[in-house]
Amino acid sequence: MRRPGPLPAPPPRRDPGFTDFEEVDAGAAEPDTLTTDPWAMDADGEADAPASGTDSGDDADGPHDPATAPVEFYDTIGPMARRPSATVADTPLSSRPAGTDPDRDGGTVPGRGADGEPGQIGVREVWAAARARRRALRAEVRRFTARQRRRRRIWLTAGIAVAALVLGTLGAAYSPLFAVERVRVVGASTLDGAAVEEALAGQVGTPLPLVDSSEVKAALVAFPLVESYTLEARPPHELVVRVVERTPIGAIESPAGYTLVDAAGVALSTTPEPPEGHPLLDVRGGVDSRAFAAVGTVFRSLPDDIRAQITELSATTASDVSFVLGETDTTVVWGTADQSAQKAIVLETAMAQLPPDGVDTYDVSSPGALVVS
After folding, report:
1. What is the helix (H) or strand (E) element at residue 125, kind and residue range?
2. What is the number of other CB atoms lying within 10 angstroms of the CB of residue 110?
3. What class has domain 180-245?
4. Topology given in CATH for the domain delimited by 248-372
5. For 111-138, how does the pLDDT look when each residue is reduced to its tens digit (9 = 90+)?
6. In the 8-state DSSP scheme, what is residue 161?
7. For a FRET experiment, which of 22, 34, 179, 221 has its CA 20 to 30 Å from that of 66?
8. Where is the composition biased (Pro residues) (predicted)?
9. Distances (CA, A) of 323 to 270, 299, 314, 332, 333
10. CATH 3.40.50.10960: which residues of the chain?
11. Is the full-model pTM beyond 0.85?
């Protein structure tokens, strides 16, 4: 009875970190019998040494029984057989990559134990990787936030500059650098400008932005001829007062004398004698009547050359306004104050064609139907 053969040897154990294999020449003749691989491991995990007196790659001297001979296994891919390549320990030092020499790199290969077998990663390697990751994250954060920091710096600088400019301007404007040193009155013809400047002398020394308009108004109330006014600051030291004078329309006789009034009935001055250059007003109802308002409207609508010729202006009602041209005693019948501008044009044209010295009456109460007599 035939003796049973031993169990086949397990495949050679290879380092998973090194996967290079040497290809066996495909053209070489295959052996008639399989020989034991010198790297083969026995059942206990120990390498079997080649048999003494024999070559692991050649046939033995004695006959072999194919049924009892150990079987050698090779990794094959297609027709190409591969064997494990040389390990790092078999590689010359000069040709080894950095970090693979155990003697030169601290006694172990990264990721391997002291015996060259795969090992666990140490705490130092984990800390180093974590530090590298944190450094990379910080670099990314700095890179992505650099633009925002620059933008904030620009806005902050601009804001500080604007604030400094505003504060500097306000500080200079409200300081004695822009105090009033001179008051000038513009637009006064009948009004005494020097008297107005003297009345406003209290504003001298006040910063231009702090000039009190209520105090200016209180000072100008004493001048009836001032109808309105505006203040104009001219840095660094001048205050300009632009006044609009009231236009007197005539004088009203009263027990106190002759009072010069404007179209609003404001008394401008009172003299014992009729004022020169102003007509006498004969208006029923006084300055508060509708007749007086109509007289004022008519007088202001006339051209200056016709105003200068009027010596008397009268009205009993608002619809029968009339006046007298003193040089020729010519009467002008005006009627109501309606269409006063058109009536003034018609009268001026009629006086140019028919001078007043040959006319007794101009009736322009109906501007479309002029009557001259």
Report:
1. helix 123-173
2. 13
3. alpha beta
4. Rossmann fold (3.40.50)
5. 555 555 555 678 888 888 888 988 888 8
6. H
7. 22
8. 1-11
9. 23, 9, 6, 6, 7
10. 248-372
11. no
